[in-house]
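TICKET: design request
STATUS: open
ATTACHED STRUCTURE:
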């Protein structure tokens, strides 16, 4: 009781809840794609990610952003970034829970479990997952350097996080990043001006000297990076470590850290290479496809990460509205609020389903040969990255509004919804912004039999809802007739919605039916427009069983 008034009707934070046990859509996706999944692993991660104790680390790591030290106090150049101890605590947890390169050393199902774990961890803190994701994604590109891959993979897959600035041989685990974007071009990396001069051969392969810059290079304290630079044969991909094998510091200068909208716990830097040593990855002149072997996997993580953030925002909105009263009822009981929350729940489940479907395609194609899954992996990468990430910001705004004014207030990092909102646009921009994904869809249409693959995907759901059947016909015609590049976004959206509907056929009938009705017969422009007769109670019950 304060002197002037009693504090009443304020919701408690969502803390000490098991995020996995609350998340039926994620449990169902895991059970479908990988029936033998390790339930105990997820119960443990769900408890840790939802604990009040680790949420404090997420707040502190974001509130105390990383600091760049270009020089020591004696004037020596050091180029080191200092992170709050909470950043390291989160990194340690992420590696312990195998969110990075471990699936490359595991068997079938490893990528599916990692994907689900990555999504779950995002509900705790997304920005530290940038280096974690890049350390996962780098393996396929690095395979082109067998000797180096043999040396680095065990450290990339190690679960014992090691933040020390030491040569990789002395560390228990390493992390990796990527540098493509330059001042004059990020989407069109062919404009890269950074140059690479051949120096000599050694045990890791062809060694070059790199001179130039990168305008964005996140997580600059990673142990090594894949970077693009021009040789006389064209744009090529290079492995550039921060410390050289003899222990000396490589000539990578961190010029500045970006002052970003969100993603505060992660450092994103501008760097220069002053004759830095690097090793060629793959063939000279084939840098784009080589680094895209990494980029396509980080695109998976963009979709997973956004689906995780959506789920977090939804859980907070449900938790809040179940406690807050207005006009004589709990908010969650007010008819229009139920409509909004149920609509958000549909979107969240659809995002989870689509991102996990892509993870399955990655897993199947990495652990064997499967022609259908190859096409789905190629198709779903731009589709899921485009659509799930595009929906993120819109979703976060509506979830924030469910909390009213409290949603907009950060209070030194304690207002998690505002942090989610600032984070949301990022996954849509980096690793190929929306238009770049839609353009990539056009490339897929030219190179794969997408129509046949989609027919196969839709088959189990055909006949289950008239809106789905109508949309399927429309999309298949659209694939055949798309001639205008400017219409690629529309097609990307339509394919995404249809795939989401087909995936939700496996969910509750209330979810499937409401999704088809609200999304396939003309996509809604704001949340909360579910038509009369929608079983919102069943949808909300599935979204958060503990509400009722
Ligand atoms: C926080 C943060 C961290 C980052 N970290 C990294 C990193 O670690 N490594 C790295 O290499 N990069 C990183 N990036 C850079 C990011 O990947 C690029 O910003 C992104 O790829 C877009 O490139 P750009 O900024 O040069 O924009 P541009 O290429 O100029 O694109 C601007 C807009 O034009 C659109 N566009 C481009 N071409 C076409 C076209 N042909 N038709 C229609 N539309 C088009 C794009 O979709 C985009 O919306 C990071 C960015 C951010 C914000």
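STATUS: resolved
RESOLUTION: sequence designed for all positions
ATTACHED SEQUENCE:
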């Amino acid at each position: 009781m304060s002197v002037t008034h009693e504090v009443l009707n304020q919701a408690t934070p969502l803390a000490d809840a098991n995020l996995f046990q609350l998340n039926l859509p994620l449990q169902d996706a895991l059970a479908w794609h990988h029936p033998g999944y390790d339930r105990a692993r997820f119960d443990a991660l769900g408890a840790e990610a939802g604990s009040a104790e680790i949420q404090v680390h997420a707040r502190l790591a974001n509130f105390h952003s990383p600091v760049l030290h270009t020089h020591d106090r004696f004037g020596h150049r050091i180029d080191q970034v200092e992170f709050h101890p909470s950043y390291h605590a989160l990194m340690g947890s992420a590696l312990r829970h195998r969110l990075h390169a471990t699936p490359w050393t595991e068997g079938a199902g490893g990528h599916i479990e990692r994907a689900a774990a990555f999504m779950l961890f995002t509900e705790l803190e997304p920005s530290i997952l940038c280096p974690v994701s890049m350390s996962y994604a780098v393996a396929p590109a690095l395979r082109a350097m067998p000797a180096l891959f043999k040396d680095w993979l065990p450290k990339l897959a190690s679960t014992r996080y090691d933040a020390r600035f030491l040569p990789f041989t002395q560390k228990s685990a390493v992390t990796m990043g990527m540098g493509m974007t330059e001042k004059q071009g990020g989407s069109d990396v062919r404009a890269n001006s950074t140059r690479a001069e051949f120096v000599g051969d050694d045990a890791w392969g062809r060694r070059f000297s790199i001179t130039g810059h990168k305008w964005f290079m996140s997580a600059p304290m990673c142990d090594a990076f894949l970077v693009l630079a021009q040789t006389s044969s064209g744009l090529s991909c290079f492995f550039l470590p921060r410390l050289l094998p003899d222990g000396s510091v490589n000539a990578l200068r961190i010029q500045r850290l970006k002052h970003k909208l969100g993603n505060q716990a992660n450092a994103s830097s501008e760097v220069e290479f002053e004759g830095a040593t690097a090793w060629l990855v793959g063939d000279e002149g084939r840098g784009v496809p080589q680094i895209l072997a990494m980029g396509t996997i980080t695109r998976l993580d963009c979709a997973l990460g956004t689906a995780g953030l959506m789920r977090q925002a939804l859980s907070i909105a449900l938790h809040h509205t179940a406690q807050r009263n207005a006009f004589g009822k709990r908010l969650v009981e007010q008819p229009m609020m139920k409509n909004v929350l149920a609509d958000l729940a549909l979107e969240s489940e659809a995002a989870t389903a689509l991102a996990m479907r892509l993870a399955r395609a990655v897993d199947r194609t990495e652990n064997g040969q499967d022609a259908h899954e190859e096409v789905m992996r190629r198709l779903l990468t731009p589709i899921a990255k485009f659509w799930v990430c595009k929906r993120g910001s819109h979703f976060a705004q509506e979830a924030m509004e469910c909390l009213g004014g409290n949603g907009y207030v950060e209070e030194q990092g304690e207002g998690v919804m505002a942090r989610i909102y600032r984070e949301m646009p990022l996954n849509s921009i980096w690793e190929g912004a929306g238009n770049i994904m839609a353009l990539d869809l056009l490339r897929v249409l030219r190179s794969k039999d997408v129509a046949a693959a989609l027919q196969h995907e839709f088959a189990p759901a055909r006949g289950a809802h008239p809106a789905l059947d109508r949309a399927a016909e429309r999309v298949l015609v659209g694939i055949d007739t798309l001639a205008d590049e400017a219409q690629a976004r529309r097609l990307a959206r339509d394919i995404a919605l249809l795939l989401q509907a087909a995936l939700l056929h496996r969910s509750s009938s209330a979810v499937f039916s409401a999704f088809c009705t609200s999304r396939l017969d003309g996509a809604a422009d704001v949340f909360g427009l579910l038509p009369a007769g929608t079983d919102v109670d069943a949808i909300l019950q599935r979204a958060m069983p503990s509400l009722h």
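CLOSING REMARK: Residues 177-181, 185-188, 216-218, 260, 263, 268, 426, 429-436 surround flavin-adenine dinucleotide (CB under 6 Å). Residues 210 and 275 are 5 Å apart (CA to CA).
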